[in-house]
Structures are given as structure tokens and as C-alpha cells.
Fold each of these.
Amino acid sequence: MNKQTLQQFIRSNGWAWPGGYPCALLMADGEVIDARSARENYRLIRRETGKDWTALEMFVHWEGAPLYCAHSNRPIESAYGIPEDELELETGEDLAQFYGPSVRI
């Protein structure tokens, strides 16, 4: 990742423009970090001190469960939330809809 892209990510506070979609920074070890952690550790990322701090790319987190920053554990929410087919069935009504009316709860 070049210096300019990293600086744009940090200055955006983790939001894509236009659109205002939440973004994260993908690191070489497969983890993600948020813009605040990237700002706090800018020198480590620029120097690429080991695989842990090598930034590969910035990406928009479109949908799915929130990602968690590997450095601070802050949530990075998705733009469109969790798709319905990924939601866990939590209520008896949902179970009845999933398994059919013959299920007694």
C-alpha cells in the first residue's frame, strides 16, 4: 500500500467517500484494523515492521457481521448489516417458520 492511500484512509476516519460506507484496512497477517488504530500506529505501518504491520489494502465492509479491529477490538460495522440468511434463529416464531408449523415450542 502506498503512503498516499494510507493517509487518505486515516484522514477519512474509516469512511468511504462518496457514500459514507465503513472501511477497514487489511493487514498482511489477515487481520483488519480501523482508521483510529492506523492513525495511532502510522509509523509502524509505514515502516512495515514485520508481517503484523504490513498494510495490503483498504476495503469497504459491505455486509455481514461486524469486523473487530485486531489492535483495539473496536467494532467495524458493515454498510448493509447482516443478511437475513446469516441471522441466527432466536425466537420460537423464527424456528416455527424455519422448520414448519409441526414443530412445538
Note: Residues 88 and 94 are 9 Å apart (CA to CA).
Amino acid sequence: MGAVFARRSIRKYTDQPVTDDALRVLLAAAMAAPSAGDERPWYFVVIRNKRIRDQIPEIHPCAHMVRQAPVAILVCGDRGRQKHKGFWSQDCAAATEKILIEAQQLGLGAVWLGVYPVRGVAEGLSRLLRIPEHIMPFSLVVLGHPAEHKEPADRFDDSRIHWGRWRRTAVKTEAADSGVRRDAWETDR
């Protein structure tokens, strides 16, 4: 099973540090993300300093695990670098997901904590990390060597798929070739 399917949110870490080389690979993966108009509005703040990490849960109520993790990456977007207005957040989401997938490939554990559009959290992290006004914190990826293991989760839900066009009620059929139940299979595809 590939990294996309094996990846799970990991919130417990060992005290083993994450190397600079591993961080560079993670950041290179983030910067390989697709970007609207190839604008690449992302910036990244790598947070290793424990004193700073210990303050983050006071700003972000779901960030308690950052105190135990050896490092976190704050993914930010430059709202002034938008060839296509409003797409900076999608670009940053793609970059965040690339970090998560590459962390799985490297044997690291990571969790994505949403920051944008929660104004108080974004503003608090901006103050703590001295981020300029035109840069918006988007997500916080907390990571380290995992101290917990989670089995891959099968989250596929065929009831969420509409083939060809949206159907109000799903048509239940069996796919003869695979035996997998499919919803909304009857379509004009």
C-alpha cells in the first residue's frame, strides 16, 4: 500500500530529532505541489525552538502534541502573490498534503492542524513568529518520529461518488467485474 493510503495522523512522537536533510526533503516535496498559475505563494516557518513550540497550544487549542514533537512546520501563504485571486489557500493545502505524504515515505509521523481561516489562531501565530501582515498562516504540520502506530484506514465511500451528474438518490448495483457495491453507478458516462 502506498504512502497516500498508509498515511495517518500521528500525534505522539519519540524524542529523536528530525534531521535537516529530512526537513529539506519535506520542504522540497511541499514546493513540488501544484499551484494556480504557477504562482507558488507559499512560505514555510520551521519551528524547532522548544520555548516557541510550548507557546503554540496557548494559541491553538488542538496543538497540545507540538510540545512533545521535535519540530513543526507552519505553512503560510502570501496573499499578494495571486495570479488567480483566492487560490492561495488551495496552493497551501496542496503543499501541506505533500509534506504529510513525504513524511510517511520518510518514516515520520505528522498531523495537519488547521490554522486558516480561524482569525484568532492565525493572528496569534503571526504575532508569536513575527510574520508580516501580508503573509497568512494556513496550516501547522507537527511532526517527528512516531511513538504510535495506526493501521491504514479504509475510508473509501462509494456513496459519495456521483458518476456523470449528481443523483439525489443513489442506485444500488453490483459491479460484475469486482463485486464492489457502487452507488450512483447508473449514469450517462
Note: The domain at 3-144 is CATH 3.40.109.10 (NADH Oxidase).
